[in-house]
């Protein structure tokens, strides 16, 4: 029995099961979660210097601990997982005492966890290692989404936050190493949840106070929140462009910026190449003109070509600096595009913040500014590429002309001896 081979076979088996039995609703208890548990289990097991048999037990249990979700409801998935692990290990001819140890580790992950030995403690701590990680927020959202999809359990944001706080407060890591490694992160995540819940409760209390004072607008808003009437909320919001329009703006701006970067790269290439050519001409060829007088004209043509190419390339990349100021009248009449730094880089932060707030509160102004931004990006791109076109033409024809001139000079005007 080779533990490494059996662990590799367990990995292959579980990966194949998830691939052949896809469950789109299992957005939390999926292969990604299993891989994260395996990684955490390996880290914990390495710290305790387990024997080969113990390592085999922990790793196989980590791979199999949630496979039962693919073949039934969440309730009782541990028992189904243990049965599948037993069948797999039997086929691998693994001794019975290891099979029982693996089953014990899997069953110990049932909430509330009650591990009885170190191996079970390691698997339990690995299963909930995300509680003390930076991924907790994202994983917690996925768990909430899975419960809504699979068990049709809907939670308000406040309810879910309160449940998460309760779970973290009642949870403890079982191994000393997990406590040292993950407990600080778990406490930090718990504190963030408490702050989030306190903020929501404070907001709710303010609304209740407003209700006591009989403020009609706030009363209507609270009633809508309590009922979860999202459709009515959407009716109260101002109309927004479709997502496709926003995607179009984002894609077009990205493409313009990418093309501008490409133009700058091409210009830099031309500047670098021609700078090298000029250096060679000045340091080598022109020193030999007394010996090679016939190369004066070809050399000058070559030099003029390189200088002209550099001039066009520099013009293509040379930045234009605008005034960088605007006034209140410009904002009120929507004459300034605050999405371009050249229109505000000399303004105080307070004025720029005010202008941006005005623009964001006016959808016509906002999307009009985005249209102007794309348009002027296109104008700048057109200028860049026209100058680059000239630079490449000058370089191409100049090189050809220079080579022809050097060839004629070498053949028809022999060097002075």
UniProtKB/TrEMBL annotation:
<feature type="transmembrane region" description="Helical">
    <location>
        <begin position="391"/>
        <end position="413"/>
    </location>
</feature>
<dbReference type="GO" id="GO:0016787">
    <property type="term" value="F:hydrolase activity"/>
</dbReference>
<keyword id="KW-0472">Membrane</keyword>
<keyword id="KW-1003">Cell membrane</keyword>
<feature type="transmembrane region" description="Helical">
    <location>
        <begin position="292"/>
        <end position="316"/>
    </location>
</feature>
<dbReference type="InterPro" id="IPR043760">
    <property type="entry name" value="PycTM_dom"/>
</dbReference>
<feature type="region of interest" description="Disordered">
    <location>
        <begin position="222"/>
        <end position="245"/>
    </location>
</feature>
<feature type="transmembrane region" description="Helical">
    <location>
        <begin position="267"/>
        <end position="286"/>
    </location>
</feature>
<dbReference type="InterPro" id="IPR009218">
    <property type="entry name" value="HD_phosphohydro"/>
</dbReference>
<dbReference type="GO" id="GO:0005886">
    <property type="term" value="C:plasma membrane"/>
</dbReference>
<dbReference type="GO" id="GO:0000166">
    <property type="term" value="F:nucleotide binding"/>
</dbReference>
<keyword id="KW-0378">Hydrolase</keyword>
<keyword id="KW-0547">Nucleotide-binding</keyword>
<protein>
    <submittedName>
        <fullName>Phosphohydrolase</fullName>
    </submittedName>
</protein>
<keyword id="KW-1133">Transmembrane helix</keyword>
<dbReference type="Pfam" id="PF01966">
    <property type="entry name" value="HD"/>
</dbReference>
<keyword id="KW-0051">Antiviral defense</keyword>
<keyword id="KW-0812">Transmembrane</keyword>
<dbReference type="Pfam" id="PF18967">
    <property type="entry name" value="PycTM"/>
</dbReference>
<dbReference type="GO" id="GO:0051607">
    <property type="term" value="P:defense response to virus"/>
</dbReference>
<feature type="domain" description="HD/PDEase">
    <location>
        <begin position="26"/>
        <end position="141"/>
    </location>
</feature>
<dbReference type="InterPro" id="IPR003607">
    <property type="entry name" value="HD/PDEase_dom"/>
</dbReference>
<feature type="compositionally biased region" description="Basic and acidic residues">
    <location>
        <begin position="222"/>
        <end position="231"/>
    </location>
</feature>
<dbReference type="InterPro" id="IPR006674">
    <property type="entry name" value="HD_domain"/>
</dbReference>
